[in-house]
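User: Let's play a game. I give you a shape written as tokens, and you guess the letters that built it. Ready? Here's round one.
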């Protein structure tokens, strides 16, 4: 059936004017219904698809504000002109259409569809009421149309309350979004089970990467490492998560001479690990000082606080130990306000713990091993930073005997500071050195070289008890720490010694000239940080 070449508005029927199609009911059903009820006539009983395909409205029924240059219509156009012969005044056409759209939607939700609603008996939609004077005109104008659609009750009053009519008219005056599609806010799905490797699993991943170069003579890829981790530790993350973990522990991709991307460890990490392993080896062979490991952790315990059971409370634990076990009297157990240990320990608190707890209980000169946490590294000879003012930088330069011109800018002074920056000297090192002890720091991202991690994991398993009175928790933690016998410490320290030996064997490949040609002589990096290799 061909579309009619005339206007479908009753008593119009013009064919020499521009004709416009109805809006697509599948894309903009609200405006489609507004067109139908404004036009009225025989199309009220037609199917939506039929009206869209075969019925047209001429250009004369649209206000000038809806016209465009090309004699087309804007996206929000509705027919409102020359419709009074339908029994509906132009200024009230929108009100009537809103009322009928509401009724149409209500029947859609109650009976499934408009067609099904028309076949139902004319039951009241809500209840019989008498409209107030404010909406009397709309009510009267709508009655005939509602009767033709069987949407009225036996009393002749529309089956809808005046409150609904008032609400519809109010919504008419509310500005609507320009697009017919509702605005949808995209929500990102958040994983509840975030994939995180512990320090020993990260150490295993690092050693596996080294093993590819040292023994297999292959370039490690994410796919190969992914299969190894799934087999050995049951890794549940995706390849993209593994890629991010590899980057976070100090590796990056560099392009080789053959333009292939190869996985390379940061040079500063490799050098720091070499210094550490050499110092440990020297102590074992010559100095033979007892090695004391220190660390801190935060542990969450389900406690009872008055009448409030299962209240989660975090506790900060600081301690030190060696192959012989924990250092007696060096423990510190306090409530923690934050989740991570580095957020609960200040540099001053750590130095105070070393002076009052650790140092007095060391029976002989020792090699103290700690990580590179911020609170472990309070500087004696702090230098200006990028946030320092020009006056602060000038004072520091003068104090170090460096004479500069007053005309130099702050960026120039910062460059001079970088060239004259001394080796860092730490407060805790000075305290322990004065007592005859030596201090050694574990390389960054190498916490698998500290057996304290295994001790903390064992302690947290032992403390998995619900509803402990808060005043009893510190004593219970202390008792659990004492359960860790010297045999446990000896076992964990032995595991660390094996890990150190693995690093020594694998790091030999770093001295191979072929490795330098393949991995370093590229001139470009995917991460744009080639200066790390200088």
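Assistant: Ready! My guess for every position:
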């Amino acid at each position: 059936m061909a579309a009619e070449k005339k206007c479908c508005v009753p008593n119009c029927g013009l064919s020499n004017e521009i004709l416009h199609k109805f809006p697509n009911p599948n894309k903009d059903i609200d405006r489609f219904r507004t067109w139908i009820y404004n036009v009225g006539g025989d199309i009220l009983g037609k199917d939506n698809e039929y009206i869209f395909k075969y019925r047209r409205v001429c250009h004369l029924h649209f206000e000038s504000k809806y016209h465009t240059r090309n004699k087309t219509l804007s996206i929000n156009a509705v027919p409102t002109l020359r419709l009074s012969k339908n029994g509906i005044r132009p200024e009230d056409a929108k009100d009537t259409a809103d009322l009928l759209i509401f009724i149409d939607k209500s029947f859609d939700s109650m009976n499934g569809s408009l067609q099904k609603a028309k076949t139902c008996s004319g039951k009241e939609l809500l209840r019989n009421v008498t409209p107030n004077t404010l909406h009397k005109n709309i009510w009267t104008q709508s009655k005939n149309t509602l009767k033709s659609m069987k949407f009225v009750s036996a009393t002749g009053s529309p089956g809808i309350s005046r409150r609904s009519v008032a609400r519809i008219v109010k919504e008419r005056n509310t500005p609507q979004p320009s697009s017919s599609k509702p605005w949808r806010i995209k929500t990102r799905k958040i994983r509840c089970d975030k994939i995180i490797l512990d320090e020993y699993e990260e150490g295993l991943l690092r050693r596996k990467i080294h093993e590819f170069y040292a023994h297999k003579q292959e370039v490690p890829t994410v796919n190969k490492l992914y299969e190894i981790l799934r087999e050995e530790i049951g890794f549940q993350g995706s390849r993209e998560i593994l890629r991010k973990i590899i980057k976070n522990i100090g590796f990056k991709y560099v392009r080789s001479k053959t333009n292939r991307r190869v996985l390379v460890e940061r040079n500063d990490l490799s050098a720091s690990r070499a210094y550490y392993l050499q110092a440990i080896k020297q102590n074992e062979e010559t100095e033979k000082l007892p090695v004391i490991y220190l660390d801190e952790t935060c542990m969450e315990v389900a406690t009872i606080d008055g009448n409030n059971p299962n209240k989660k409370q975090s506790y900060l634990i600081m301690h030190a130990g060696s192959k012989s076990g924990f250092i007696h009297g060096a423990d510190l157990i306090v409530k923690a306000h934050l989740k991570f240990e580095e957020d609960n320990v200040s540099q001053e608190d750590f130095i105070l713990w070393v002076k009052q707890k650790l140092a007095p209980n060391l029976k002989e000169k020792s090699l103290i091993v700690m990580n590179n946490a911020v609170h472990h590294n309070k500087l004696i000879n702090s230098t200006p930073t990028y946030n320092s003012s020009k006056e602060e930088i000038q004072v520091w330069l003068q104090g170090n005997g460096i004479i500069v011109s007053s005309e130099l800018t702050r960026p120039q002074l910062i460059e001079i500071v970088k060239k004259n920056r001394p080796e860092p000297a730490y407060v805790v090192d000075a305290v322990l050195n004065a007592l005859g002890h030596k201090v050694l720091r574990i390389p960054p991202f190498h916490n698998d070289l500290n057996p304290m991690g295994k001790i903390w994991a064992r302690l947290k398993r032992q403390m998995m008890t619900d509803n402990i009175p808060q005043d009893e928790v510190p004593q219970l933690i202390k008792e659990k720490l004492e359960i860790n016998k010297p045999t446990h410490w000896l076992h964990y320290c032995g595991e660390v010694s094996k890990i150190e030996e693995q690093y020594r064997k694998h790091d030999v490949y770093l001295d191979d000239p072929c490795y330098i040609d393949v991995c370093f002589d590229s001139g470009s990096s995917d991460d744009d940080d080639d200066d790390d290799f200088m």
